[in-house]
Design goal:
Layout (H helix, E strand, L loop, with lengths): L1 H12 L3 H6 L1 H21 L16 H8 L1 H32 L6 H13 L2 H11 L6 H7 L16 H26 L3 H9 L4 H12 L1 H16 L3 H6 L11 H10 L4 H32 L1
Helix pairs in contact: 3-15, 4-15, 5-9, 5-12, 6-9, 7-9, 9-12, 12-15, 14-15
Length: 300
């Protein structure tokens, strides 16, 4: 058996050789550009680079300034609020919509297209649309007041205390449709016999979903979670289109902080430090996911 195993290895090495050769440029691009660029950013985050990068090391000074800056702490707080609520609401709403669509309703294709359509729009378009909708002069507040409720107030984008929730509304409107489609694909993969068995045993529908269907959709939930989380960390366009970080700095997010310091304030060292912290955040998300997805399979 050992000799056969050794003999198979060269054959496996040369299997699909054309495909492996064709993938070399992509691998080199990933290694040189992504990995190289990441290391370059981390190294220069410890320097005093301004308009141009320079190897003038200052230790952890950039990180100390970063965490001492009110704008950065506001950005992190906003990202935490936006991220947690986006994860919760998009998963819950997306799953509920998918469960309704899975009932073989009429005009399913039409409803699915309507729910998914916002995802086809860019964040800039979505941000501008919701900026108009939430504008107190001619948006929801104006319409409700025109109907007779003159004391009604709804201006989240102009209120520093709740502005992040106005951005959250636009983000959910755009992204929930994709979550619904992913969940619907997972539900359609559940064997119909499971539903029949649950009905025969007299198990209520909500218990069937909660204790049978959802655990079977673990892989779908994990994948959806990673997709949503990666979008949360790099949220930028939506904020710029809706509020440009205002009122004041009330709706700042880390991605906007990085952009402003690198391309407007001409402080590359500070921008590199902020982007490195964003990289750490992404690693915190990706590493557990990779462990759950691949570590468990390897043990199995």
């Amino acid at each position: 058996m050992t000799g056969q195993t050794i003999a198979r290895r060269p054959n496996q090495l040369f299997r699909n050789l054309n495909a492996k050769i064709a993938s070399i440029p992509m691998i080199l691009t990933a290694v040189v550009i992504f990995l190289g660029g990441t290391l370059w950013t981390v190294v220069y985050s410890f320097t005093n680079s301004k308009l141009l990068p320079r190897l003038s090391f200052v230790g952890l000074d950039q990180y100390e300034r970063l965490w001492a800056a009110t704008r950065w702490t506001v950005s992190i707080t906003n990202l935490a609020i936006y991220g947690v609520l986006t994860l919760i609401f998009s998963l819950v709403i997306g799953f509920l919509l998918a469960a309704l669509m899975d009932q073989k309703i009429r005009f399913e294709n039409t409803f699915r297209t309507i729910f998914l359509y916002p995802f086809a729009l860019s964040f800039i378009v979505t941000g501008l649309v919701w900026q108009w909708i939430l504008n107190p002069e001619f948006g929801i507040q104006s319409v409700v007041r025109a109907l007779g409720w003159t004391s009604f107030t709804f201006d989240p984008l102009y209120n520093a205390d709740i502005v992040i929730y106005g951005i959250l509304i636009a983000g959910l409107w755009q992204g929930t449709g994709l979550v619904m489609c992913l969940m619907l694909a997972g539900l359609r993969g559940i064997d119909g016999e499971i539903w029949k068995a649950a009905r025969v045993d007299g198990i209520p529908t909500w218990k069937t979903y909660l204790f049978i269907v959802i655990p079977m959709m673990r892989a779908v939930f994990v994948t959806t979670l990673v997709i949503i989380a990666s979008g949360i960390v790099r949220v930028y366009d939506l904020v710029v289109a809706q509020t440009s970080g205002g009122p004041g700095i009330a709706s700042e997010v880390p991605a906007k902080y990085v952009y402003d310091y690198m391309f407007q304030a001409q402080n590359l060292g500070q921008g590199f430090a902020a982007s490195t912290m964003m990289l750490v955040t992404v690693a915190i998300i990706i590493v557990p996911w990779a462990y759950l997805e691949f570590g468990g399979k390897k043990r199995g």
